[in-house]
Target: Glycosyltransferase 2-like domain-containing protein
Amino acid sequence: MMPDSPVISVIISSYNHENYIKDTIRSIIRQTYKNLELIVIDDGSKDKTWERINDLRAVCEERFLRVIFKKQENKGTCTTMNELISLSAGEYTFGIASDDVADERAIELFYNFLSENKEYALVVGENKLIDADGCICYWDKNRNITYDRETAEYTSFSSYLERVNSAGITFDSELFGTYETLMLGNYIPNGYLVRKAIYELIGQYHTEAPLEDYWLMLQLSKYARMKFIRETTFYYRWHASNTIKNVSRVQDMTRRTYQCECKLLLSEKHKALFQRTIQYLERHYKKMLLSLGFFEIYKTRSLEYKYMCIKIKNTVFKFKYKKYYIF
Model:
C-alpha cells in the first residue's frame, strides 16, 4: 500500500451490543490498511454499549487519523447512517454492524480492487459465521448453529445467500449486484467498501425504506457495478437477537422498502431501467405465470400494472385457485 493512499472512513452504528462492540472495534484497529478514520454513533443503547466504546477511546485515538464517538437518543438506523456518512471525510466508507467482526486484511483487499476498477462502486467478500462467543460455526438447514463442518448445510453466511437468492445467480456471475436481480431480493453479504462519491448520486437513506442495506444496494446498482471476492473478509455473528430472526419485522421493513423503491422506479428518470426490469422479471416468472394460466391476460396490461403485480408475488403466486387471481 502506498503511503499516500486515501483516507477510508469506518462507520459504525451501535445499539445494545455491549457484549460485542469491543470485538468489532478491535477488528478495525487490527486492519492492515493504515489510513483510517473511525466514526461510531451509539443510537440510544439501553445497555453498557456506550461505556464499552469509550473503554477503547485512547487506543483508537492513537491508531486512527480521526476518531468521532457520539451518543444520541434513539433515531433509527437510517437517520444514524445519514449522519455517519455526513461526518465521514474519507474517499471510501466501510460499514460494519456493532456485533460483527472484520478480517484484518478486508479493507486493504477491497481498496486494492476499487482503486484499480473504476467502474465498480462496491466490493464485498466471503462472510464466515461466528457464534456469540466469537467461535467459527456453521448452519444446519434451518439456520441453527452446528460446529460440524462435514454435516453442515451452509458453511458461511455468504454461501447461504448464494444458494438461496431468488435470482438464482452465483456470486461470480456478471449479474452479481445488478438492479434487476436485486429486485428479487437482497443477497449482498455484509462488510462492504463503498466509494463515498456514489452517495452524491443516490442521495440519503430514507426512513420510508427502513431496510437500509437493501435500499443502498438498489440505488447503487442503478449507477455502478458490484464485485464479490472469494476471500474471507468478514465474520457475521449469529446470536440470540439478530434482526433477521424477527421474521415479521423484516417482512414489514421489506414491504415498506419496496413501496419506497416503487415510487422511485416509476419516475421519468428511471423509465428505461423500469422497462428493463419488467422484462427481466417477466422472463424470471414466465413459467410460473404460464402454469397459473393467465400469462396471455397479463401481457395485455400496462407496465405499471405488471410491475405491481410481480412485486406482490409473495401474496399472489401462492394462491391455488383462480378466484384469487388479480390479473
Notes: Residues 22 and 55 are 8 Å apart (CA to CA). The two ends are 57 Å apart (CA to CA). Residues 271-292 form the longest helix (22 residues).
